[in-house]
Design a protein that fits this description.
4 helices, 0% strand, 96 residues
Length: 96
């Protein structure tokens, strides 16, 4: 009887822990909303799947009018065609 109760308690603990949002998952909706507001993704885009991201570079305290050159920051980690598509979007946000 103790084995059955122990197994039931462990199953409940596992079920509750799996139901909680995984690390960072609670920020997904907010991140999508901010990306839509800043025109990184279209307003009417349908998000089918969200992948866990990695931080490639981090900069703090960038002056407001300083241009962010993605090629110099991400050039050795991200394909140039991807950076070429992102750079105009970053420039547009910087000019708002």
């Amino acid at each position: 009887m103790k084995v059955i109760i122990s197994a039931l308690v462990i199953s409940c603990i596992v079920a509750v822990s799996m139901a909680r949002p995984q690390e960072g998952a609670q920020f997904t909706d907010e991140a999508i909303r901010q990306a839509q507001q800043s025109y990184l993704i279209p307003q009417d885009a349908k998000i089918q799947k969200v992948e866990r991201g990695i931080e490639l570079a981090s900069y703090e305290s960038i002056p407001a009018r300083q241009r962010i050159d993605l090629f110099s920051i991400l050039g050795d980690q991200v394909p140039h065609d991807v950076i070429a598509k992102l750079q105009p979007q970053v420039d547009h946000i910087g000019n708002e």
